[in-house]
Design a protein that fits this description.
Length: 334
């Protein structure tokens, strides 16, 4: 069951100790939304703790982190903490919070705030707006429902959420409301030039050289409408980089002329058995969320992902074989 902003807000007020989390491998919308909700709940007089499977992404360190804790650092040490509510942010399915699920108890009320069209309504209380460009946009509506003024820190976090999930307002999920909400956030006194510099102008020389290396590995198929590249653990090790250092390269792939769908295959590190992360990006209406969903993942029409067990060649061949279905690579923004 989906609830209105007022219903969701009233139920939040009834709880006092919140465990806040989001999906594995958090990007801008997840990070910004988590930080904004943490600040908002604290201003309501609530006790909060942010726990996610992954550590705080370095790319967003310019945002106030407000005690973001990685699960491996919290588990054990935080067992004495008692929560009466879990707030899952930007998650279409509870499984997307990963190992944080271990902290959920039968006494906790689950709150689900999201914008994915594939959201399964897994919470006791769900506030899901599938027409919103980002979860940050949904959270802004919730803050307005509370009659509280959005402070500068929250405005900065929400702007990052919306800007990143709309591709700097270039993707077709961008709406009139996206621009309206962003204009209101700017009025709160944020410095968008500084924010954009942090988001898009921090590439190191080492990363740039790795980009040149990856360009040489690009492959295309389906008449040039599909482009893909793979990154092995050895590739990262030799260049002294991490998976997060490769963020943004898939958008470079997607922006190639005639490409409608781009795929990045990346070997996961330090796991038992072979594991590969697969990232999808698209344009011209290719719905990659459906394709990712077929392999246990999810996301949006134009940005999605999944994780598969198997070697890099095995996973790559499995995905590419599926992508040979030309009906999955269609034109037309939908």
């Amino acid at each position: 069951m989906n609830h209105s902003a007022s219903e969701f807000y009233r139920e939040l007020l009834k709880r006092n100790r919140f465990l806040i989390t989001s999906h594995v491998k958090p990007e801008g919308d997840a990070v910004g939304s988590v930080l904004a909700m943490d600040s908002f709940l604290k201003r309501l007089g609530k006790k909060t703790r942010i726990v996610c499977e992954d550590s705080f992404p370095k790319k967003f360190e310019f945002l106030r982190q407000n005690g973001w804790t990685r699960f491996s650092d919290f588990n054990g040490k935080g067992k004495r903490e008692k929560f009466d509510a879990l707030l899952a942010v930007d998650c279409p399915d509870i499984s997307r919070i990963g190992v944080v699920q271990k902290l959920i108890t039968s006494r906790m009320t689950v709150f689900n705030i999201d914008h994915h069209v594939t959201n399964r309504g897994f919470g006791h209380f769900n506030y899901v707006k599938a027409d919103a460009s980002a979860c940050g946009e949904v959270i802004y509506d919730l803050l307005i429902e509370s009659d509280m003024t959005v402070n500068r820190g929250e405005a900065q976090a929400l702007y990052v959420a919306i800007a990143t999930d709309t591709g700097s307002f270039r993707y077709c999920n961008t709406t009139e409301n996206s621009h309206y909400v962003s204009s209101r956030l700017i009025q709160a006194g944020i410095n968008i030039e500084q924010i954009n510099e942090h988001l898009y102008a921090t590439t190191s020389l080492k990363q740039l050289k790795f980009l040149a290396f990856l360009i040489g590995k690009i492959r295309v198929m389906s008449g040039g409408s599909l482009a893909w590249v793979e990154i092995s653990r050895d590739d990262l090790k030799k260049n002294r980089l991490t998976y997060r250092d490769t963020e943004g390269f898939i958008d470079f792939l997607k922006n190639l002329k005639d490409v409608k769908c781009a795929i990045l295959f990346s070997e996961a590190k330090n796991v038992k058995g072979a594991l590969v992360n697969v990232s999808f990006r698209s344009k011209h209406g290719c719905d990659v969320s459906k394709i990712a969903g077929e392999f246990g993942g999810g996301g949006h029409r134009k940005a999605a992902g999944c994780t598969l067990r198997g070697s890099l060649p095995f996973v790559r061949n499995k995905i590419l074989e599926r992508m040979k279905d030309e009906s999955k690579i269609r034109c037309g923004c939908g």
